[in-house]
């Protein structure tokens, strides 16, 4: 054993210990590894940073953008609302619906993102139905992790092992090569999570991280909860051709028009109504106002009035909402009326309610000077409300839950759906290589407006990318110094006579164990070349061994630090460390059993 091998193995051991103890952030550890390797001379400085140019790093960066496109357009959130409608009657029924759905979501986007989207859905259903969210959240998280086993892009370990096979000039995994085994683990795992696991979790008071004001609560606070109406403007109405200011809808009728939809348009084509917006024949106007005032408007202006259905109400609130703001000292609003301020023109938002000293001003607040301490309920599109949040004219006091959940680019949901389906089709058929396909999909997400370039950069999980790029040089150092070969030779000498399935089991156990304490991505980067060399040294097909470490890396069930998905549910589920051990270890054993039974049939040794 040479000095270089001892050095690299010692660096590997120190890295694992620091990962496990969590003394330093993992991405900083990875950067430290790159620096140490460059200074040691074991590899060159260029090799130490070459990980940032690896195709696997670029592919994962592209997938972050694609996943963010699905989230920002509301495609993923729409799935969550469907779950609420279909599975909200009981714990068992909810689990039967939510487990496969979150798994499928995680097969095509970040499992962390999928769980983050569904946590408020689960908590909302728990509040409404009375069941205990702590018995749902952990199965939800584990199903998301299993979902990563379903496709090539489901989780970084799948991409890493595929790239390792490709780089070695061997047959690699296709897009759905993981699916048969992933589905089997999902079926068995779901049965366990539904029939056994949730009963291992004690009923606890959950911490509702989403607790706060809903739009309904805000509307009640300002006494406008029953004041949302729809008006259909006929072609012969006196309003046709007038702006909302010229028509005097606010000054004459105390009615605020906030959105409109032209004849034949869908609810996804709602337009914000500003001061200079002209009313057209056939328009549907969405307004706030007291019923008596709105009925008088309808009668005098020959407009048909109707209340919104629950579904239409929900669809409108997907694009438009309200926010409570506070008038502060030295604010330009102080001492001036809304009319003097030309509020709608200035802020492109409508005031639908004013409160002063904890009392709602019922009438004439358009002509009442605003005072410091007044709170206003302003209505606009979610995008506009976000842009007003943080301005200098007033302070956002209450942001409703719907504002947090509203997609930024809901009107582009169809584009995002077409892009993700096209990406899957191209990757499945092999028309283009995976790297090119993912990069094209990411660029199309930006070019089509599913997210802007700032949001795309923000979606890149820097920690994950740096971690992968930083661990690749360590794997390279193990190869160039002979450390990896030494491990392979020792393994072959000691275990080479065992049946292949037992060696596969050993690889699975080591990978799964490491993944409970360090990133499954880092674990896979280290294990992939070693496992590949072991399989080749035994003269066996490397594909079942590489599939085993990919599946094992996703079995991060036994600790709250095993995956960001697990960490995400600790607080809202009020879980302890032992809860993950009780539920996670049996699930790991089930996943390993299913894998070892199916691997020889799917990928003969």
From TrEMBL:
Subcellular location: Membrane
Location of the RCK C-terminal domain: 216-303, 310-394
Keywords annotated in UniProt: Membrane, Repeat, Transmembrane, Transmembrane helix, Transport
One Pfam family of this chain: CitMHS
Organism the protein comes from: Saccharospirillum mangrovi
Membrane-spanning ranges: 5-24, 30-49, 56-83, 95-123, 135-153, 173-195, 464-488, 500-533, 545-563, 583-603
Protein name (Swiss-Prot/TrEMBL): SLC13 family permease
Membrane-protein topology: Multi-pass membrane protein
């Amino acid at each position: 054993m040479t000095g270089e091998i001892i050095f690299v193995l010692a660096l590997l051991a120190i890295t694992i210990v620091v990962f496990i103890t969590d003394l330093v952030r993992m991405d900083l550890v990875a950067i430290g590894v790159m620096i140490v390797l460059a200074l040691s001379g074991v590899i060159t400085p260029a090799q130490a940073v070459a990980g940032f140019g690896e195709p696997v790093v670029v592919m994962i960066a592209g997938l972050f953008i694609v996943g963010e496109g699905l989230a920002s357009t509301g495609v993923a959130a729409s799935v969550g609302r469907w779950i609420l409608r279909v599975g909200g009657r009981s714990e068992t029924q909810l689990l039967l619906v939510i487990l496969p759905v979150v798994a499928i979501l995680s097969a095509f986007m970040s499992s962390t993102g999928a769980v983050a989207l569904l946590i408020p859905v689960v908590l909302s259903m728990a509040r409404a139905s009375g069941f205990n969210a702590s018995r749902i959240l952990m199965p939800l998280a584990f199903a998301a992790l299993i979902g990563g086993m379903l496709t090539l892009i489901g989780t970084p370990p799948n991409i890493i092992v595929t790239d390792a096979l490709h780089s070695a000039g061997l047959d690699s995994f296709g897009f759905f090569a993981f699916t048969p085994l992933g589905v089997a683990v999902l079926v068995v795992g779901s049965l366990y999570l539904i029939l056994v696991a949730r009963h291992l979790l004690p009923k606890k008071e959950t911490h509702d991280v989403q607790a706060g004001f809903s739009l309904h609560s805000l509307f009640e606070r300002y006494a406008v909860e029953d004041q949302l109406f729809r008006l259909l403007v006929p072609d012969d109405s006196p309003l046709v051709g007038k702006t909302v200011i010229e028509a005097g809808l606010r000054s004459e009728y105390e009615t605020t028009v906030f959105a409109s939809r032209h004849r034949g348009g869908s609810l996804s084509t709602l337009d914000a109504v500003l001061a200079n917006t002209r009313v057209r024949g056939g328009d549907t106007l969405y307004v706030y106002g007291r019923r008596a005032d709105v009925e008088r408007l309808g009668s005098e202006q020959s407009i048909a009035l109707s209340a919104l259905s629950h579904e239409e109400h929900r669809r409108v609130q997907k694009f438009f909402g309200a926010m409570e703001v506070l008038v502060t000292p030295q604010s330009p609003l102080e001492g001036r009326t809304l009319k003097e301020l030309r509020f709608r023109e200035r802020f492109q938002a409508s005031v639908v309610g004013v409160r002063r000293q904890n009392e709602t001003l019922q009438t004439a607040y358009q002509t009442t000077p605003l005072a410091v301490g007044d709170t206003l309920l302003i209505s606009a599109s979610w995008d506009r409300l976000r842009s007003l949040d943080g301005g200098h004219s007033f302070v956002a006091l209450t942001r409703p839950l719907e504002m947090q959940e509203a997609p930024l680019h809901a009107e582009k949901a169809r584009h995002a759906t077409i892009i993700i389906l096209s990406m899957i089709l191209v990757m499945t058929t092999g028309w283009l290589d995976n790297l090119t396909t993912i990069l094209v999909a990411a660029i199309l997400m930006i070019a089509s407006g599913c997210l802007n370039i700032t949001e795309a950069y923000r979606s890149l999980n820097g920690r994950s990318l740096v971690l992968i790029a930083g661990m690749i040089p360590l794997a390279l150092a193990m190869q160039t110094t002979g450390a990896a070969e030494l491990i392979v030779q020792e393994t072959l000498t000691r275990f080479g006579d065992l049946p292949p399935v037992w060696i596969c089991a050993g690889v699975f156990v080591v990978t799964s164990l490491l993944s409970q304490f360090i990133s499954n991505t880092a674990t896979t980067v280290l294990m992939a070349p070693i496992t590949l060399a072991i399989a080749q040294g035994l003269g066996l097909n490397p594909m079942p061994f590489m599939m085993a470490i990919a599946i094992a890396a996703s079995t991060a069930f036994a600790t709250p630090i095993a995956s960001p998905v697990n960490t995400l549910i600790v607080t809202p589920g009020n879980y302890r460390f032992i809860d993950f051990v009780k539920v996670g270890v049996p699930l790991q054993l089930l996943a390993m059993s299913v894998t070892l039974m199916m691997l020889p049939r799917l990928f003969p040794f």
